[in-house]
Design a protein that fits this description.
The strands form four sheets. Strands 3-2-4 form a three-stranded mixed beta sheet. Strands 1-9 form a two-stranded antiparallel sheet. It has twelve helices and nine strands. The chain is α+β, with helices and mostly antiparallel strands. The radius of gyration is 21 Å and the shape is elongated.
């Protein structure tokens, strides 16, 4: 297996997005959602205790807030709830990621929060550096690498936090949280190639084939930053292992080449 250390040039970045006016209804809708009062603001329901992860870290939440998730609504009705106590055990979940989910259920967002920068006319994450312009060649760590990635004990390595949040939201039936996590992941930069590929495999393993949004994000990222990935020893090693990820990548690359070829033919039509 070919090995090589990853330096700053072997880092993948965030997706570039077309800037639109802040008056755009889609942006106003997201802005209004994030500025709305906390979910379950009455907080009059009973308290549910949750033990998360192998270390059984304790959390407490109001039942009406948890019930915003179909998964927890079923649990609170007694499907998974212990008979003599309002307690739910989640031994396979990650405590740090569950903390993000709980924060979202109460506040409609999780740290780092997404916000709109009127001066730049673009979305950004709080505490993010503002001097990054080239997403495929950004400085190590991006917008705060300690906050963009987490160590996942179950996977034995570092994963992108927003990817794990997305997959956890899939499990809990929280579609809005999935959309939020995907939007946040699109704002990341300066992520190591190994972390990107490890997270892509995790996304494939923890999302159904019918949900292609997160998978498509990774395929587009690799194609867009292909100059970085093609010289990466980590990419070579991962491709030698194989998997559905790389077949989908092959198909996406073929489609990309076909699109480029069609555009070139339209600009310079050939006479047969």
């Amino acid at each position: 297996m070919f090995k090589r250390s990853l330096v700053s040039r072997d880092r993948a970045g965030k997706a570039t997005r077309t800037k639109r006016s802040f008056k755009d209804p889609a942006k106003l809708k997201v802005s209004q959602k994030l500025e709305s009062p906390p979910l379950g603001s009455t907080l009059l329901s009973s308290i549910v205790t949750l033990t998360v992860g192998k270390e059984q870290r304790l959390f407490a939440a109001h039942e009406d807030v948890l019930s915003l998730s179909p998964f927890f609504a079923a649990a609170c009705r007694g499907q998974f709830l212990e008979a003599h106590a309002k307690r739910i055990d989640l031994p396979d979940d990650d405590p740090e990621i569950f903390s993000c989910v709980l924060e979202y259920l109460y506040k409609g967002d999780y740290y780092p929060a997404i916000r709109f920068n009127k001066r730049r006319n673009s979305w950004e994450l709080e505490d993010a550096p503002t001097d990054l312009h080239d997403p495929c060649n950004s400085p190590p760590g991006g917008r705060g690498f300690a906050e963009s990635a987490v160590y996942h004990a179950g996977e034995g390595g570092v994963l992108l936090k927003d990817t794990v949040v997305y997959c956890t939201a899939e499990k809990y039936g929280l579609e809005e949280l999935k959309r939020l996590a995907l939007r946040k992941q699109g704002l990341q930069s300066g992520i190591e190639v190994g972390t990107v590929l490890r997270s892509a495999r995790y996304a494939y393993d923890h999302t159904p084939d019918t949900d292609s949004r997160l998978r498509a994000h990774y395929l587009a990222l690799i194609i867009r930053c292909r100059k970085i990935f093609k010289r990466s020893g980590t990419m070579q090693a991962e491709m030698e292992i194989g998997g559905k990820l790389f077949f989908d990548l092959f198909v996406s690359l073929c489609n990309h080449v076909d699109d480029v070829y069609d555009i070139a033919n339209k600009q310079s039509p050939r006479v047969i």
